[in-house]
Specification:
Length: 196
């Protein structure tokens, strides 16, 4: 499977994919890593693994008065020649519009640190931890889902629950969530690669 991975930051989930491929746990190839942030450490991870990288920041579009749809169209046009089987949003901090999604129907998946219908959007881990403190939930989780215009609402491919313990700090809970993210992401890509 030919993967394009979109990132905005540290790239720890990208690293999980790279490691799984190198260990033959995942039969795939990352053909391109795209970041919307030129200083994203994930770009360094990709370059160290010999993967082609591309930076396409949104800021110049905003400064010149261009729309998000124009950015998404250009992003899609840039990725299209790579002919990916799957586009993986691994910490990509932009909501993609139909201008992008319609170019790759059924090929864009997202990793989100929450369970279906819970804590869509940003800071899901912090919001789950706060909800636990208020006795509103007993656990959270991680899912990989198909991307649709509605944020974090597409069909779920793979999910896992993560317990929250009474003595958890936010940092401890966050670390457990990130470990689960790596596992869930690899399992979801494996499922899609096997045609399940």
């Amino acid at each position: 499977m030919r993967l394009v991975v979109l990132i905005s930051g540290n790239g720890s989930n990208l690293q999980a994919i790279i490691d799984a491929i190198e260990c033959n746990l995942l039969h795939a190839e990352i053909i391109l890593v795209v970041s919307n942030k030129p200083d994203a450490f994930g770009l360094v991870r990709a370059q160290q693994a010999g993967i082609e990288t591309l930076v396409l920041p949104l800021r110049p579009y905003r400064l010149s008065g261009k729309s998000r749809e124009t950015y998404d169209e250009d992003l899609a046009a840039t990725i299209l020649p790579f002919n990916p089987d799957l586009i993986v949003l691994a910490g990509w901090m932009h909501i993609l519009s139909p201008a992008f999604l319609d170019v790759f129907p059924g090929k864009v998946i997202n990793l989100h640190p929450a369970l279906p219908g819970k804590f869509p959007g940003k800071q899901a881990i912090e919001r789950a931890y706060a909800a636990y403190q208020r006795d509103e939930i007993t656990h959270s989780g991680v899912m990989v889902h198909y991307v649709i215009p509605e944020v974090d609402a597409g069909q779920v491919i793979f999910r896992a629950e993560v317990e929250i313990f009474p003595d958890d700090t936010l940092a401890a809970f966050e670390a457990r969530m990130h470990n689960t993210e790596h596992h869930v992401l690899i399992q979801a890509i494996k499922l899609l690669g096997s045609g399940s």
